[in-house]
Each structure stands twice: as structure tokens, then as C-alpha cells.
Amino acid sequence: MFRNAIVRTPCENMVNGITNAKLGAPVHKKALAQHEKYIEALISCGVSVTVLEADNDFPDSTFIEDTALLTPHCAIIANPGAAARKGETKKVEEVLKDFYKNFEYVKEPDTVEPGDIMMVGEHFYIGLSKRTNKSGAEKTISILKKYGMTGSVVTLEKVLHLKTGMSYLEHNNLVVAGEFIEKPDLQKFNLLKVDADESYAGNCIWVNDKVLVPAGFPKIRKKIENAGYETIALDMSEFRKLDGGLSCLSLRF
Length: 253
Description:
Elements: E1 4-8, H1 28-44, E2 48-52, E3 68-70, E4 75-77, H2 89-96, E5 103-105, E6 117-120, E7 123-128, H3 134-146, E8 150-155, E9 166-168, E10 173-176, E11 190-193, E12 205-207, E13 210-214, H4 218-226, E14 230-234, H5 237-240, E15 251-252
């Protein structure tokens, strides 16, 4: 169960964020309204939310998930693979000192963005992507082992991050889209398969037995509800323009 979440307010400079989506520039005022709804949803799931101020020095900083991997035993401060994002971790580390005693670090030349990391109990699936390199994944796994946890590597071919295309909903239920549907290592899960026309909804988040889903994708939402979950649908249009999903917007622990 999650007790806490940390989010960061979208900055006005988000219009200059990194994207391959080709959906146009995000509208800051609309993004702020959507972010407020996101916070309200987290609170409704029983989570205490810490809200960090916007930082125009980092256009993508609202996607706070990529700054740290928060495990039950330690906080691992990431080293984002995108050069423009490397400075985002400093403020997050300062805030995490109120919650964690044990800190570990991924440093150059190793890169890791936790959008590439999916937690299943005390095992962590780590995607190799343009943002997370092999040595970064290996460093992360070595840290996890130090605290009695485990990790394994998953190769990516098409998506930005591992969790762009799959989301663990606890209870052995795994939402999967695109290239992940046929992955041999994932067949042990109960797979909730996302149709190609709803692939964006491969990124959703379990929060204390409720599931936050992006609005506008009724087929996968119905599958999740049929699996026994209450869902909360949230408009993600402005964050989608920056290749961002629901998991990207918070650190949950």
C-alpha cells in the first residue's frame, strides 16, 4: 500500500519539453487543471501528497517519476538519460530526506530513468531504452541486491519507457500493450491486453487497489474493472503531448 506521493507542478516552460508525439504544444493552464485533478485522485486513494513548486529551468520536471526509484528499503537517485533532465534530481533528493534514511545513486556513465522500472513485489523489471543504458540497469540491480531485492532486464524496441507499454496492478494482473504482449518473461502474469488503438492506456497506475487510467480508452478501462478494480479516469491530453503518462507524474511510496 502507498502512503505518500510526491508531485511537481507543471512549469510554464513545459511547452519546450522533450517530445516525439507530434500532437502540438501543451497548454499550460489546461495542464495545471489536469494536474490538480491528478492530485485529487491520489488523495482519494488514501495517499498524502507533497507538491513541489514548478521549475522553469527544467521543462520536463513535472514528470518527477524519472528522478528516483523508491523501494521499501532505500531511495535510489537516478541519472536521467536525457541531458536536459539531469538537474531535476537535486530538489527531489532534498525532499526525500524527510522520508528515507538510506540513499543510493546512479552516476555517469550509467543512466537510469525510473519510467523504465516496474516494481513487482521486491523484484524490479528494468527496461533498456534510449534513456536507461545497460550499465545503468546493472548498477541498479546491484543496489537492489544489496538490500535483498532483485532485478531483471527487459529489452525495448518501440516505446520511450518500459512503463509506456505496461503497468502492474498487483494481484498478478499486468496491463500490456504493443511489443510487450508476447514477451516470454511476462506470460506468467494475468495479462490485460490493450488494443492497438488504445495503446496510450498501457500506462496506468495502481494506487491502493484503485487504478488511475487515462480518460478516453473505454475498452481497457472495462477490462481493468472486470478484473475487480475501481477505476478513476483522468484527462491526460496536455501531458500526452510530451510523451508523458499517469505514472510519470508522481513518486509513490
